[in-house]
Design brief:
The protein is of the alpha+beta class. Helices cover 37% and strands 24% of the residues. It has twelve helices and 16 strands. It starts with a helix and ends with a strand.
Length: 390
């Protein structure tokens, strides 16, 4: 575990009086241990990561012991439950020996394994915060019932609070994810011409992301009369002269998310479309300029909306203009009109200003902004204007 994560989670324990924090959502398990389970992604199995004052632990199905061993996941204790699907050779190598040692006698269930892991970390009494994000209601009840003298309280919000401020390593991952998304988007802009379909453009974008060592998030490339639809699935609608193209795409690098939105047009824009894009660009710039430590999240929303209205769209409305981003695509704070949360140095915001007119135009701009002690610093490197395709 990196020192930053340890400091953030220790602060949560001290502030709340909890004896331990238990992660269940994949992003929180990754935050505590650095472990990403393909088993959980494929089959929605339970993985738990424990953070306590005396160390960390992983509680996993026995099938996950192999990647924990081969990837050298650094935790103090590993507890498995259920049966294994791998046999160990008669003369096992170092991986096989380590696997044998960890497998031991697996617990019959996740709650049993968690109780053992907490015991190994010296947690026997008091309150334990359990992230409810990766647990069904019955799983929560079974877990809480097994922990006996330990009182279990919800902790998803506590993990979200801890993850708000990013470490240098996290910022590096976020910057690389954003760079990949922008490079891939630029490659798509270069290949767009009349006749290219939404589906072909999405495929090209996602291919470019994979080429660069990341994975793509669900991609929006909305063309022409579909560009006002907030999140359309890719279709066979082909690009024609005069069409707007709205991009809302992203990438994930080492678990960290990036998201970028830009708008292009096939051919020269008319005065109305250029004016609308200028207005939302003014909103984005005003929102970024408002970013500073201690500023309420609601102020960012207010700055964006007021700027768009002042730039020629007097009836512009928007329920939010973004939120935090990190191990999940949607983190705290919410940039809404009623969120009083003060911004903190080191958190990363995804600021977006779309303008979607039902049955009409659809345009969007979106940037990623780091909150620094002196204000907001945009991490994007791509151009901001309406992109003219020729």
């Amino acid at each position: 575990m990196y020192p930053h994560q340890s400091e953030r989670l220790t602060e949560v324990l001290e502030r709340t009086g909890l004896e331990a924090l238990v992660a269940s959502a994949p992003e929180n398990v990754l935050y505590v241990t650095g472990f990403h389970s393909m088993t959980a992604a494929l089959f929605r199995t339970i993985q738990l990561a424990v953070f306590a004052r005396r160390g960390t632990a992983l509680v996993v199905p026995a099938i996950d012991l192999a990647p924990i061993v081969t990837d050298r996941v650094a935790v103090d204790h590993v507890r498995a439950f259920g049966g294994s699907v791998a046999q160990v050779a008669d003369r096992p190598d170092a991986h096989g020996q380590r696997l044998q040692a960890l497998a031991g006698r697996p617990a019959p269930s996740a709650p049993e394994a968690l109780a053992d892991a907490l015991g190994a970390l010296g947690v026997a009494h008091g309150q334990v915060g359990v992230d409810e994000g990766g647990l069904t209601a019955p799983a929560w009840e079974r877990l809480a019932g097994r922990l006996g003298p330990l009182a279990v309280v919800p902790a998803a919000d506590l993990f979200l609070a801890a993850r708000r401020v990013k470490s240098p390593y996290e910022l590096e991952c976020l910057q690389r994810a954003l760079g990949i998304a922008e490079e891939a988007l630029n490659a798509v802009l270069q290949m767009l011409k009349p006749g290219v379909t939404e589906r072909e453009a999405v495929t090209a974008y996602e291919t470019e992301v994979v080429k660069r060592g990341a994975s793509a998030t669900p991609s929006v490339v909305a063309v022409g009369d579909r560009c006002w639809i907030p999140a359309p699935a890719p279709s066979d609608r082909a690009l024609r002269m005069g069409d707007l193209v709205r991009f809302d795409v992203g990438a994930v690098h080492k678990g960290y998310h990036a998201s970028v939105a830009r708008t292009a047009i096939m051919g020269e824009p008319d005065r109305r479309r250029q004016a609308l894009h200028d207005a939302i660009q003014a909103g984005l710039e005003a929102a970024v300029a408002a970013v500073a430590p201690g500023v309420p999240a609601a102020r960012i929303h207010q700055a964006a909306v007021e700027a768009v209205r002042a730039a020629g769209v007097p009836d512009f409305r928007r329920d939010h203009v973004g939120h935090g981003i990190g191990l999940a695509p949607y983190e705290r704070p919410d940039l809404t009109a009623d969120d009083p949360t003060p911004l903190e140095p080191g958190e990363v915001l995804r600021i977006e200003v779309p303008l979607l007119e039902v049955g009409g135009h659809g345009l969007a701009v979106k940037d990623t902004v780091l909150v620094t002690r002196s204000g907001g610093r945009t991490l994007n490197r791509s151009v901001h204007g309406l992109v003219v395709l020729d």
